[in-house]
């Protein structure tokens, strides 16, 4: 099987490339920077077609994870880069698939669980989930994230690729023991004694162990009947306060200082980030995966946190 991964040098792209390579598949990771890897890597400018486009002709799977990191301040320049890096690369992928004489049989397109409404009352699945945007007094930065998610998915819908199955992957935060990811950030707070609840701690965190992310991707490749939207998340999201308590327990630190909303605003400004990443309630569940019998290796956070901490200690 030949797998093309756009955005292949990012955290998730690296996780998938390594997993497919170890499984004996042909992997071509396409990214903006030059990267030395055991699998094939090609550069692109993420704005135009080039040699990378021809790689999709005859490939079995294309996975598009390309997009600027959202862990930044949402100033005008960064907003433009965040939006364009997703919309343009998705358009380019669609054009390359459409031009292929032997197009990939499946296109897995990154999206985000952030597209759903901020809510505490019930979980968002694919069937009854509420798309965000109608909430009263929605912060501007939150509305921008929704606009990006919807534009991202709309570009996939607009791609004329009748011979290629298309899947929108609304993925929760993927927890990996690798450095530089979201788990690394949360664990750093715990190790500094700052891993208490954020705000009132009621906001839900939807998460996914990286091992289950890899298995879910393979499952989507294998199940030809799955198309359109799928939530890729653990079946057990939980409130921020509980999430952080279990992470502290897994690392062996009983106490974590809480952070009020104003403290988070100051901290986000200093760290050049946005509080939406912490304060928005993402209560998302994998309706289709659960209904179709997908088995999570780590369905609950306490077990996942212990495994991730163990892997981190082992290096």
Note down, in words, how this protein is organized:
The protein is of the alpha/beta class and 315 residues long. It has one domain (2-314): 3-Layer(aba) Sandwich (Rossmann fold), CATH 3.40.50.720. The chain is built from eleven helices and eleven strands. The chain has a seven-stranded parallel beta sheet with strand order 3-2-1-4-5-6-10, with helices on both faces. A two-stranded parallel ribbon has the order 7-9. The chain is globular. The mean pLDDT is 93.
User: From the alpha-carbon coordinates, what is the Rg to the nearest angstrom?
Assistant: 19 Å
Largest sheet: 7 strands, parallel
Number of helical runs?
A: 11
By secondary-structure content and strand pairing, the structural class works out as: alpha/beta
Shape: globular
Q: Please give the CATH architecture.
A: 3-Layer(aba) Sandwich
Sheet with most strands: strand arrangement: 3-2-1-4-5-6-10
Q: What's the topology here?
A:
Elements: E1 2-6, H1 11-22, E2 26-31, E3 40-43, H2 51-55, E4 61-64, H3 76-99, E5 106-112, H4 140-158, E6 165-171, E7 173-175, H5 182-191, E8 204-205, E9 207-209, H6 210-222, E10 228-232, E11 238-239, H7 240-251, H8 261-270, H9 276-279, H10 287-291, H11 301-314
Parallel strand pairs: 1-2, 1-4, 2-3, 4-5, 5-6, 6-10, 7-9
Antiparallel strand pairs: 8-11
Helix pairs in contact: 3-4, 5-7, 7-11
């Amino acid at each position: 099987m030949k797998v093309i991964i756009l955005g292949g040098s990012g955290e998730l792209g690296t996780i998938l490339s390594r997993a497919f390579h170890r499984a004996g598949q042909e992997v071509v990771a396409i990214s903006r920077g030059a990267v030395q890897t055991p699998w094939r890597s090609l550069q692109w400018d993420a704005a135009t077609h080039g040699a990378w486009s021809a790689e999709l002709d005859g490939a079995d799977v294309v996975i598009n994870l390309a997009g600027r990191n959202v862990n930044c301040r949402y100033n005008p320049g960064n907003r433009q880069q965040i939006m364009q890096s997703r919309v343009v690369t998705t358009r380019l992928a669609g054009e390359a698939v459409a031009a292929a004489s032997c197009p990939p049989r499946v296109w897995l397109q990154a999206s985000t669980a952030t597209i759903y409404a901020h809510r505490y009352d019930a979980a968002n699945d694919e069937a009854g989930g509420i798309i965000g945007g109608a909430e009263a007094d929605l912060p501007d930065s939150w509305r921008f994230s929704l606009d990006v998610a919807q534009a991202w998915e709309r570009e996939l819908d607009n791609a004329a690729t009748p011979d290629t199955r298309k899947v929108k992957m609304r993925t929760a935060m993927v927890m990996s023991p690798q450095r530089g990811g979201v788990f690394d950030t949360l664990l750093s707070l715990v190790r500094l004694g700052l891993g208490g609840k954020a705000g009132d701690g009621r906001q839900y965190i939807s998460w996914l162990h990286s091992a289950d992310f890899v298995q879910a991707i393979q499952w989507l490749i294998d199940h030809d009947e799955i198309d359109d939207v799928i939530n890729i998340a653990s079946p057990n999201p939980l409130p921020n306060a509980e999430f952080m308590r279990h992470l502290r327990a897994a690392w062996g630190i009983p106490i974590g200082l809480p952070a009020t909303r104003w403290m988070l605003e100051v901290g986000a400004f200093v760290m050049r980030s946005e509080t939406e990443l912490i304060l928005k309630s993402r209560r998302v569940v994998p309706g289709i995966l659960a209904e179709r019998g997908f088995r999570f290796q780590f369905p609950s956070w306490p077990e996942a946190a212990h495994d991730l901490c163990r892997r981190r200690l082992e290096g």
